[in-house]
Amino acid sequence: MSTTSAIRGEIVTAANEQASAGVDRVGVATLLEHGRTLSAPVLRSAVDRLASPMDTVAAYHFGWIDAAGNPADGDGGKAVRPALALLSAEAAGAPAEVGIPGAVAVELVHNFSLLHDDLMDGDEQRRHRDTVWKVHGPALAILVGDALFALANEVLLEQGTVEAGRATRRLTRASRKLIDGQAQDISFEHRERVAVEECLQMEGNKTGALLACAASIGAVLGGASEADADALEEYGYHLGLSFQAIDDLLGIWGDPAATGKQTWSDLRQRKKSLPVVAALAAGGPASERLAALLAADAKAADSSETGDIGGFDEEEFATRAALIEEAGGREWTSGEARRQYATAIAALDKMDMPGEVRRKLVGLADFVVVRER
After folding, report:
1. What is the per-residue pLDDT across 132-169, written as a single tens digit (0 to 9) for each?
2. Is 208 left (phi over 0), alpha (psi -120 to 50) or beta?
3. What is the pTM of this model?
4. CA 140 to CA 226: how far, in whole Å?
5. One CATH from 3.40.190.10, 2.30.30.140, 1.10.600.10, 2.60.40.1120 for 23-369
6. Are 60 and 135 in contact (CB under 8 A)?
7. Closest Cα partner for 182 from 109, 127, 81, 277?
8. Rounded to an integer, what distance in angstroms lies between the CA atom of residue 50 and that of residue 151?
9. Cβ–Cβ under 8 Å, residues 17 and 354
10. Confidence class of residue 271 from pLDDT cuts 50, 70 and 90?
């Protein structure tokens, strides 16, 4: 069994047990494809507004063309956020189509963040091919990211309704939190110690805020009350924390063939992810040894003109991963993913919605926490 499959196994049983009694499994692939089908034409139309060469660069990022400009049927991502936006419209009693502007806006903001994150993190691969900054250069990666962010607000505001204004306020707040989270994440890399609560706050900003917006924006466009939109936002926020906890596990122990990233990718970037932070907080010999290694890294970075601590071989990364696991960081993070999942599902009970829509939201949550990448 691969490491990635093992991580899935840690979560899937608990997720199934925690889902409400009587909830049928739903065709998540159908939900995702439905969201993609409804939102893709509007998304492409929005991207077509960009000036050249930004339109071409964005099309490459979304997987619509290859690096040479030829049409491609690339992996444009799972489309979880568009599916959530359309389902949230249905939760408010509106047709799914009402949520399309919200689905597109959230997807644009999400991809704005990916373009910038790849550059800041130095990631050369995304979805099993070269990232935009690697192919087209850092300047265009930044500009296209900025353009997608501007388009997101434009797509919403051009609806010209009171509900669109409410939706835009939620999107801009989520975007600001997302940026806050990215800044926190970067700052943590240069600290020896980060508290677990600080890490959860960072991940709530970086990942939870936008999923929370996706889960509520369609409902807002459909005229939902603030209380109902807040309940859906709570569901999305905690689902985002569960999603990120899984991502943190995959960032250390995930199979590169499934994740599309290097082995030990988060350790290579010195990220203070949940497994690392939980291991450092646990105490004990493994925790203390890990802390000593990270302190030595920080000292080496401080004394380097470039902030680079030099390369490690695979054995060194394997040793650190083993220390994190021995100190309990992997087990704690797996448990936190389950706790956040349960909180997300419980939030759905705060809103009166059609039973079929609730089943779909639960099914989508199950998919998020048992994913391989």
Report:
1. 999 999 999 999 999 999 999 999 999 999 999 999 99
2. alpha
3. 0.89
4. 38
5. 1.10.600.10
6. yes
7. 109
8. 9
9. no
10. confident
